[in-house]
Amino acid sequence: MDNLQGGSADLSQYQGKAVLIVNVASKCGLTPQYTALEELQKQYADRGFTVLGVPCNQFMGQEPGTADEITKFCSATYGVTFPMTEKVDVNGEERHPLYANLVDMADAEGHTGDVRWNFEKFLVGRSGDVVARFSPQTTPDAPEVVAAIERELSTES
């Protein structure tokens, strides 16, 4: 996997951290969630947490931009400072291996399998295991998301 601006996004750099992985899109009704994602990044980064944005254009073409366009939009519109990967597929035959390891986790409604829409969230704990999944409509600052992050940050890696 590469960074949005090129170069390798070595996922091993997140070992021992809690990571909220979110498939993002710039032209979605849920795009304002970037604000709350950035707030989580600022609030918890010094405690061993990061948001990892994963642009995806599989849902009605809502992330059509180039890497440069996505970077500029996220920075200028939402002040995004958290890391972003290259644009990938999260579903289907070309599903990125990262997502192949995430989608077996059930969310609160019991949904497993394919990502349903932009801004579906997966929390990977300090241990490297997927510990929670949240629907696209669950905002990043929802009590259940914050509680799951807090729980992971209180555990040892």
UniProtKB/TrEMBL annotation:
It comes from the Bacteria. The keyword ATP-binding does not apply. Transmembrane segments: none annotated. PROSITE patterns: GLUTATHIONE_PEROXID_1, GLUTATHIONE_PEROXID_3. GO terms for molecular function: peroxidase activity. Keywords: Oxidoreductase, Peroxidase. Gene3D superfamilies: Glutaredoxin (3.40.30.10). Coiled coil: none annotated. InterPro entries: Glutathione_peroxidase, GPX_AS, Thioredoxin-like_sf. Belongs to the glutathione peroxidase family. This is Glutathione peroxidase. It comes from Streptomyces endophyticus.
